[in-house]
Design goal:
Helix content is 42%, strand content 21%. It contains 8 helices and 11 strands. It has a 5-stranded parallel β-sheet with strand order 2-1-3-4-5, with helices on both faces. The protein is elongated, with a radius of gyration of 18 Å. One of its GO terms (molecular function) is transcription cis-regulatory region binding. Keywords: DNA-binding, Phosphoprotein, Transcription, Transcription regulation, Two-component regulatory system. It holds the Pfam family Response_reg. This is Response regulator transcription factor.
Length: 220
């Protein structure tokens, strides 16, 4: 799961990055409106945490531009502005959720996970696909009820496939959501992660459609 934090307070951004990273997100950060508008409009994210008070373009202007340009990433507005009229303005501009500062990090993580599940059409926190169970909240993988030890990268891959179980996910899309802007994102790296997972969970769960991508076998 790939997340973008748009926050000019670097202390808050650092706290958010640590919390989201621990919750299984691949996190990127920008601290001004112009960079945020460009990044959100040209990259695909599972979640964007957007502060309204930014240098350059303000958050509401960015959000309106994203939506007008077709950006469908779930957006959680995070701001010190707590008036209900401003909350309504944010939702009307295209926000999916709104959390005023100060906030509890646990609540933000819970809201973030809920937004990701809903955007994938999966309201439940536990995704069950045959023998495979993916618990998004607890970051736990089980096969036939037995917990399987996986790395954060392996968990992100399985969680993304589980949330998009109704289609075959192309390799470039998987790489984008696993690695973000890292130099490590190439087809060989993805194949290596999938090979490791198949050794851990069995060979019949992650399917390969040659020339198309990867998916999960719901019959597992």
């Amino acid at each position: 799961m790939r997340a973008l934090i748009v926050e000019d307070d670097h202390r808050i951004a650092s706290d958010l990055q640590r919390a989201l990273d621990s919750a299984g997100f691949r996190v990127e950060h920008v601290d001004n409106g112009e960079d945020a508008w460009f990044r959100g409009g040209t990259e695909n994210y599972d979640l964007i945490v957007l502060d309204l008070g930014l240098p350059g373009l303000d958050g509401l202007t960015i959000l309106k531009r994203w939506r007008a340009e077709g950006c469908e990433s779930p957006v959680l507005i995070l701001t010190a502005r707590g008036a209900w009229t401003e909350r309504v303005e944010g939702i009307d501009a295209g926000a999916d959720d709104y959390l005023p500062k100060p906030f509890r990090m646990e609540e933000l993580i819970a809201r973030a996970r809920a937004l990701v599940r809903r955007s994938g059409g999966r309201a439940a926190s536990v995704q069950q696909l045959g023998r495979l169970s993916v618990d998004i909240n607890r970051m736990q993988i089980t096969i036939d009820g037995v917990p399987i030890s996986v790395t954060p990268l392996e968990f992100r891959l399985l969680a993304y496939l589980a949330l998009h179980r109704d289609r075959v996910v192309p390799p470039p899309e998987l790489l984008e959501h696993l690695y973000g802007d890292d130099d490590a994102k190439d087809a060989n790296a993805l194949e290596a992660v999938i090979a490791r997972l198949r050794r851990k969970i069995g060979t019949g769960i992650i399917m390969t459609r040659r020339g198309f991508g990867y998916g999960l076998d719901s019959a597992g």
